[in-house]
């Protein structure tokens, strides 16, 4: 006897998977292992970081603070290659709003890191502006709001940096909006982008810092996606963030409270961010950075394993 259509059991449908993010290359960074400084006894030793980031299933890493990983290119190439790792970028810290007077000191710092970054085959240099208040003590070092002349120096000196780094090392600078710096809120990010040459200056959109400072990363990708050359993947805990904002807590102590949290427990949701990035139609690195300084040495790897699995579920193969 044949069952009627109304009584037939429909075939089960396997759960749908998100489209593969073919333009997104995911990685992680020393930051996700609690590393903020070149040398600190509370940090994960660099050999353990390299072992564990590879064990977590990542193929790409950033250099982290200069001096944390070996600075000899030959040795670092050997150490990364034997673990199947490659370098996506180096990171520099700058105070370019102070004008030409800080150029020589800045360039001495930048050139060493740019040279190692190039030697490792990477193409990007992440540029983080200096903090306006001390990251540990909370002491206010300068006005949180730049003057018109400060903005002029910040933008013109950043363009200079972009030109010099490109011409001398063949690298592209990607400026990282960051909490407790002058490039933080969506308004300040837009002002910075409007005043800089797209040929010289791109943006590293950090989803956690942008949310920390009131921004929407999907909206940013839709509004000025052509300026975004690099991504940092990070989430914030909304409850802790509200306490941090209300108490005017500096970024360092906020991180110690756990304001940056393991995905997918925070905001922004990363799947729509990654989908919007894929929609730009360009190749982008998306490097996981879960600020956790300081943290117990056994904490990072389980989080990294879960995070890598979560990113695969978002389409980041």
UniProtKB/TrEMBL annotation:
Biased composition (Low complexity): 1-10
Location of the Xylose isomerase-like TIM barrel domain: 50-290
Annotated protein name in UniProt: Xylose isomerase-like TIM barrel domain-containing protein
Any single Pfam family the record assigns to this protein: AP_endonuc_2
InterPro entries found in the cross-reference section: IolE/XylAMocC-like, Xyl_isomerase-like_sf, Xyl_isomerase-like_TIM-brl
Lineage start: Bacteria, Bacillati, Actinomycetota, Actinomycetes, Kitasatosporales
The organism's place on the tree of life at top rank: Bacteria
Taxonomic source organism: Streptomyces cirratus
Residues covered by region (Disordered): 1-24
